[in-house]
Design a protein that fits this description.
Layout (H helix, E strand, L loop, with lengths): L1 E6 L2 E4 L4 E9 L5 E8 L6 E6 L6 E3 L7 E6 L4 E6 L8 E9 L14 E2 L3 E6 L1
Parallel strand pairs: 2-11
Antiparallel strand pairs: 1-3, 3-8, 4-5, 4-9, 5-6, 7-8, 9-10, 9-11
């Protein structure tokens, strides 16, 4: 079992940037691939970004493509989500999650069976 802890959320004005971190502990970090999801008030949790199975690239939701970048630091067992040009509609609780590295799917909540973090709040004001 891998444990995940997010950090880096906060309040920012539209057009600003934040970097979220997700630190993993426990199970070998290299055995999982990571993803980010978010949930806005009154809405369902939605996919934001995910590593490819070999962590060599990343997939992004259309709503964040070109603004968000996901990266991994294996030495620190941490993944990051760099969020630039933030918009009020990016306001949500952001969750990192882990899936078995060789699982086929990457953008559904049900793909992430290994672990979920507790979430970190991001608020973007207009």
């Amino acid at each position: 079992q891998v444990q995940l802890v997010e950090s880096g959320g906060g309040w920012v004005q539209a057009g600003g940037s934040l970097r979220l971190s997700c630190a993993a502990s426990g199970r070998t970090f290299s055995s999982v691939a990571m993803g980010w999801f978010r949930q806005a008030p009154g809405k369902e949790r939605e996919f934001v970004a995910a590593e490819t199975w070999n962590s060599g690239d990343a997939y992004y939701a259309d709503s964040v493509k070109g603004r968000f970048t996901m990266s991994r630091d294996n030495a620190k067992s941490t993944v990051y989500l760099q969020m630039n040009s933030l918009k009020p509609e990016d306001t949500a609780i952001y969750y990192c999650a882990a899936r078995p590295r060789f699982s086929v799917g990457y953008n559904k909540i049900s793909d992430y069976t290994a672990s979920w973090g507790q979430g970190t709040q991001v608020t973007v004001s207009s």
